[in-house]
Specification:
Blueprint: H1 2-15, E1 24-25, E2 38-40, E3 47-50, E4 53-61, E5 70-77, E6 82-88, E7 93-98, E8 101-106, H2 110-115, E9 118-125, E10 130-135, E11 138-144, E12 150-158, E13 173-182, E14 185-190, E15 199-201, E16 208-212, E17 215-216, H3 218-222, E18 225-233, E19 237-241, E20 246-250, E21 254-259, E22 264-269, E23 282-286, E24 291-296, E25 301-306, E26 311-312, E27 328-332, E28 337-345, E29 348-357, E30 362-366, E31 369-370, E32 376-377, E33 380-383, E34 389-397, E35 408-417, E36 422-428, E37 437-438, E38 443-444, E39 450-456, E40 462-471, E41 477-487, E42 493-500, E43 505-513, E44 518-527, H4 547-570, E45 606-609, E46 615-617, H5 630-646, E47 650-651, H6 652-659, H7 665-686, E48 689-694, E49 697-702, E50 707-709, H8 710-718, H9 729-738, H10 754-774, H11 777-794, H12 799-811, H13 815-833, H14 841-845
Parallel strand pairs: 31-36, 45-50
Antiparallel strand pairs: 1-13, 1-17, 2-12, 2-16, 3-12, 4-9, 4-13, 5-6, 5-12, 6-7, 7-8, 9-10, 10-11, 13-14, 15-16, 18-44, 19-20, 20-21, 21-22, 23-24, 24-25, 25-26, 27-28, 28-29, 29-30, 32-34, 33-34, 34-35, 35-36, 37-39, 38-39, 39-40, 40-41, 42-43, 43-44, 45-46, 47-49, 48-49
Helix pairs in contact: 5-7, 8-9, 10-11, 11-12, 12-13
């Protein structure tokens, strides 16, 4: 019985966990030959199989490229014969070649070749001395080989450098689940389910496949990638054209477009600006008419965008706040109408159904029948393929609609039928332990039976979006992919989810509009269908020591350390980072100690962070950055930067010139007076800091060193004017720690700021690279890697930093990470300069 159970158990373990999207993508003719992808199934020895054996793999083409000719697979036998599977682009067929003979020629239709995984099987039959090929379980053809007791071969996919059989032609393909069996029993299994590295482990035996220039598929289905970010002036709304895969971002003066088919942004300034774009305005794209609409529910008015004149045909007039925040909407082609459901405003939740008839412009409130639809907002809505039924999931509201009477989270799925004008409750999700609301749209899957939605907690500002997948038939759901940072402040925030059917991607958009009407938009994508969020699995390593055992041993070491850290924090002796996390809340900050100072003797301070994202922390450790309006922030930055750079500050006339150049002197003076008062009020919350005026200039003064400003600390450490001096290692370490947040005001863009950024970046790079060039790499490899990573924050294409980073990684034995760093750098270099990076990896590393 044991002999029966063991193979089944092994094969079950091999297959478990690989239902998720995974595989290896091959770089092809779109890159130079040495950057194309190659997979060799064993590290050097051939694969030898007794009697009958077969090799099976799943394969498909990548769409949207020009050249598809090349070798999918090449097997080289021990008697130096080749068995090849080649795609002939000119004839649009596959050639199965043994030696120099075409054994079979066959075709796969384009829809299947590009849209599905195709199963290829190559079978060796010793009795008949033949090799047979099957595609999707269909017999294709066969050819003769020399009969032997054992069949031994080297197996390559894509390019290969095997002497006498080298190939550089590989089609743009994707590969996964390579299984090799002997007499019906599994012997090797290469799932290609890795996320990084240049090895493809065998899940059955002990072999390791080797990959050159890998492009792993799994991370694209597991991790959201930020593909676009934008800051606009004014209130902003979103719309999505699913057919053409275009995101529209509507602002008061411009229309921004982002195409997911080619990942290109574009924008156009309106020929006539919108007079008013009120709070709560929403936008939607009509796929039937190919039109973009912007509407304001409270005025019952809808504007249409004219791409020819680059203008909207209507303007809104109200300045009142909407009473329909976060309402859901959809367009039904069956009656050519826009539907708006629910919303919130003036302390009331809504369950209204409003209909705008697009051809006539008639806006009416309709009375639906069927089940009770609880008043709500922060719900997700999606429509079926016919667009005559809307599914509404969850939300936040109350049965009475009154915010003061038992408001609560809602987790029911409700269907609204356009044809019958009725609601029907389908089911209730089990209430989660940690409550959440939903982004505005629900994506119905291609099969029409499943949905995808973005969830987030509404009880914190530093929130996050988490994708879930659920069924329209039963109250179950699962977490998918990783999470996305999301700044949530009730009506100031908006998030949405879209689906690109041609590109096979989900799109998440996070929008935050401050009370000062400045909007920040972040756009993310993940490949579809996304992978489930699963816990880390326990495997046994090659050393024979179970990973679980090693984890437990690590915990025995780590727990005392964590306890010590906790006690130190409790007594106020641990240094704060200044970042706010959901687990710990706002952290207190300490200044960076100068060389030779004892950090234990330093005092806890509030802070102003100028490196990375602008951040102001008050005396209680709270982040009050959002209290700075765009104008107040620019005014404050002008004062603080000019104060730090030359200790003199900035003249009032220069402030007028930069901030109010379009106003008269009188108006500029009035604006200045009003905003200085507002700024002083905010500064009082930060600490003993004020704006003083001396010799006609405004400067920032800090009393009792009560506020830590990272840029001031930076200048203190490097001692401007003496930067040529070789700074000691302790100071360099402090600088690296100080600069981890990023370059100077990386998310702020003013023309006057460019000189400050350039000057600071130059100082950072000069000082840090000076240390790197005189460091002993064998002794300081880890520190050099940290330093070069910091340099990349200021100049992501610094060639010398790449060289020292790769050399240090190799010294530490991290060859794969060194090659990855080189490949990432080369890719960014090509994207920025339009030409390939001229130095090879051996030239960079000196190997």
């Amino acid at each position: 019985m044991r002999r029966v159970i063991l193979p089944l158990l092994v094969f079950f373990c091999v297959q478990t966990g690989y239902g998720q999207s995974h595989g290896l993508e091959f770089s092809s003719h779109e890159v130079i030959p040495e950057k194309r992808t190659s997979l060799r199934l064993t590290s050097g020895d051939p694969i030898c199989m007794d009697s009958n054996s077969e090799i099976t793999f799943e394969f498909r083409f990548r769409p949207g490229l020009q050249t598809y000719f090349g070798y999918i697979m090449r097997l080289i036998t021990d008697d130096k014969r080749n068995i090849d599977l080649i795609y002939n682009q000119r004839l649009r067929n596959f050639n199965f070649v043994i030696g120099e003979t075409f054994s079979s020629v066959f075709e796969i239709d384009s829809a299947t070749l590009f849209g599905s995984w195709n199963v290829f099987t190559v079978r060796f039959e010793s009795r008949s001395s033949e090799v047979l090929i099957y595609v999707n379980k269909r017999f294709i053809g066969k050819g003769k080989i020399n009969a032997r007791d054992k069949t031994c071969y080297h197996a390559f996919f894509g390019t290969n450098d095997y002497e006498g059989f080298q190939t550089i032609d590989v089609p743009p393909m994707q590969l996964r689940d390579i299984a090799i069996s002997e007499n019906g029993k599994p012997k090797y299994f290469f799932s290609l389910s890795e996320s990084a590295g240049q090895e493809a482990p065998d899940r059955v035996g002990q072999e390791n496949g080797l990959v050159k220039n890998p492009v792993w598929i799994k991370p694209r289905f597991q991790n959201w990638q930020k593909v676009y970010s934008l800051e606009t002036n004014g209130i902003t709304s979103l719309a999505f054209d699913k057919k053409n895969e275009v995101l529209y971002i509507i602002s008061p003066d411009s229309l921004f477009r982002f195409s997911f088919s080619n990942m290109n942004p574009a924008s156009v300034a309106y020929s006539r600006k919108m007079d008013t774009l009120p709070w709560g305005t929403q936008s939607i794209f009509d796929p039937s008419a190919g039109r973009l609409y912007n509407f304001y529910i409270d005025e019952k008015k809808l504007a249409t965008y004219d791409p020819v004149s680059a203008s909207w045909d209507k303007n809104f007039t109200t300045i009142d706040l909407t009473t329909f925040w976060q309402a859901n909407k959809f367009i039904s082609p069956s009656d050519s109408s826009l539907y708006v459901l629910g919303g919130y405003g003036q302390l009331r939740y809504r369950n209204t159904v409003q209909r705008y008839h697009l051809p006539t412009g008639n806006w009416q409130m309709i009375e639906p029948g069927g089940d009770f639809f609880m008043p709500r907002y922060l719900a997700a809505l999606g429509i079926n393929a016919a667009a005559d039924t809307a599914f509404i999931l969850g939300g936040y509201g109350s049965s009475t609609g009154d915010q003061t009477i038992n408001p609560r989270y809602n987790y029911d799925l409700v269907a609204y039928s356009v044809r019958s004008n009725k609601f029907k409750t389908i089911f209730h999700l089990k209430e989660p332990e940690k409550k959440f609301c939903f982004a505005n749209s629900l994506v119905i899957g291609p099969d029409g039976n499943e949905y995808y939605a973005l969830t987030y907690p509404k009880d914190r500002f530093n929130s996050s979006l988490q994708l879930i997948k659920g069924s329209l038939r039963s109250p179950v759901y699962e977490l998918m992919g990783d999470s996305i940072p999301y700044l949530f402040y009730d009506v100031e925030s908006f998030a949405d989810l879209y689906y690109c059917p041609a590109s096979n991607k989900l799109v998440a958009v996070a929008l935050h509009t401050s009370q000062e009407k400045s909007s920040s938009i972040q756009v993310y994508t993940i490949d579809f269908p996304p992978n489930q969020l699963v816990p880390v699995k326990v495997h046994e390593g090659k050393t024979g020591v179970p990973v679980l055992y090693r984890v437990l041993m690590g915990m025995l070491v780590l727990v005392p350390v964590l306890v010590l850290i906790y006690k130190r924090r409790k007594t106020g002796r641990a240094a704060g980072s200044g970042h706010v996390t959901p687990e710990t809340g706002p952290a207190v900050l300490q200044p960076v100690a100068a060389a030779g100072e004892n950090p234990e003797d330093t005092k806890v301070y509030s802070a102003i962070h100028l490196f990375g994202r602008f951040e102001a922390i008050d005396k209680q450790g709270q982040d009050i950055s959002t209290q700075f309006t765009p104008l107040l922030r620019e005014l404050f930055l002008l004062v603080v930067l000019y104060s730090i750079r030359d200790s003199k500050g900035i003249s009032q006339d220069k402030l007028y010139e930069i901030l109010w150049h379009d106003k008269s002197t009188k108006d500029a003076r009035n604006n200045y007076s009003v905003n200085i008062v507002k700024l002083k009020t905010i500064l009082e919350k930060i600490g003993d800091v004020q704006i003083s005026r001396e010799s006609g200039k405004l400067a920032l003064e800090i009393f009792n060193e009560s506020v830590h400003i990272d840029l001031a600390e930076f200048y203190r450490l490097i001692s401007p004017g003496e930067t040529a001096a070789k700074l000691p290692k302790p100071v360099i370490v402090k600088l690296v720690n100080l600069l981890q947040r990023g370059s100077l005001l990386s998310e702020v863009h003013y023309s006057w700021l460019d000189n400050f950024k350039s000057e600071t970046s130059g100082l950072v790079i000069d000082v840090l690279m000076d240390f790197v060039t005189r460091a002993d790499l064998h002794q300081e490899a880890e520190l050099v890697i940290r330093i070069t990573n910091t340099v990349f924050k200021f100049d992501h294409l610094h060639e010398a930093a790449l060289e020292y980073k790769c050399k240090s990684l190799i010294i530490l034995g991290r060859h794969g990470l060194a090659k990855d760093a080189y490949l990432i750098f080369s890719k960014e270099y090509k994207e920025n300069y339009g030409v390939g990076f001229e130095k090879t990896f051996p030239q960079i590393t000196g190997q």
